[in-house]
Design brief:
Strand content: under 5%
Largest sheet: none
Number of strands: 0
Helix content: over 70%
Structural class: mainly alpha
Low-confidence stretches: none
Mean pLDDT: 84
Radius of gyration: 18 Å
Length: 261
């Protein structure tokens, strides 16, 4: 992978991780179009770590307040930690038991394109959702967690499905997005730690490490921009507007990778 390719894919990752258009789907399609060998998840995890840093940056105040509340034994803070744990369990279980099958999924650009089309349908459905509350309950956290687990598939937007699940539960869009981004922290961190062991045991050469670093920085910067933009859109806009983009990319990619063979 060249530095220019890493820069491009890092920007795509940062923007699409938080905008509801599937970062993993874009990476799979981007790698296929650039002729980069798919199946190696190291770059995928590294740029995801860049987006993790973006979450910690934008939601830093809320995370610090949550940590301080836990130290003070504030019931509301500990309740939020419990909800995040509940929401994390489904994705953690799927990632642990189906790791080999997920690796195969990342090798199919056609499958990623089809999942993008499905993501568009879910986003479009939220035009009928009502948003009338801000408090998240245990049932909400569990449903959002299952949405996150399903979104491990490339082409299924993690932020899109988790925010949509919150909207369909009647949760305010900005609160659903905040919970979605907080929920991404343990999942991304866990995947990064699993890959970090291999990287430390067998450090890559500079021609490999350099693009990884470029991709991480690009994902971080574009991720910060995407989070702030999405919060602004959810203030008064509708999530279903992203469905048309997912359909356009998904159907175009299906044409290229299926009918173009």
């Amino acid at each position: 992978m060249t530095f220019h390719e890493a820069l491009l894919l890092g920007i795509v990752q940062g923007l699409s991780e938080f905008l509801p258009v599937s970062s993993s789907g874009h990476l799979v399609l981007g790698q296929a179009l650039l002729g980069i060998e798919p199946g190696d998840l190291v770059f995928e995890v590294i740029v995801h770590f860049g987006t993790l840093l973006a979450v910690l940056t934008v939601l830093g105040d809320r995370i610090r307040a949550l940590a301080a509340g836990c130290v003070r034994r504030d019931p509301a803070s500990w309740r939020m930690v419990l909800l995040l744990l509940v929401g994390t369990v489904p994705a953690g279980a799927v990632g642990f038991f189906f790791e080999d099958y997920l690796a195969l999924a990342f090798q199919s650009p056609a499958a990623a394109a089809g999942c993008l089309v499905a993501t568009g349908a879910v986003l479009w459905s939220t035009r009928y959702a009502t948003r009338n509350r801000e408090e998240i309950g245990v049932g909400d956290a569990l449903i959002i967690g299952f949405a996150q687990a399903f979104a491990i598939l490339p082409g299924i937007s993690r932020s899109g499905l988790t925010i949509c699940a919150g909207l369909w539960r009647g949760i305010d869009g900005r609160e659903a997005a905040s919970f979605s981004f907080l929920l991404s922290i343990p999942v991304i961190l866990g995947a990064t730690v699993l890959k970090a062991g291999g990287l430390l045991a067998d450090p890559p050469e500079w021609n490999v490490a350099g693009p990884l670093l470029i991709g991480l920085i690009a994902a971080f910067v574009s991720g910060v921009i995407a989070i702030r933009w999405l919060f602004a859109l959810l203030q008064g806009g509708r999530l279903d507007r992203f469905s048309y983009y997912c359909w356009a990319i998904g159907f175009t990619a299906l044409t290229v990778f299926c009918l173009g063979r």
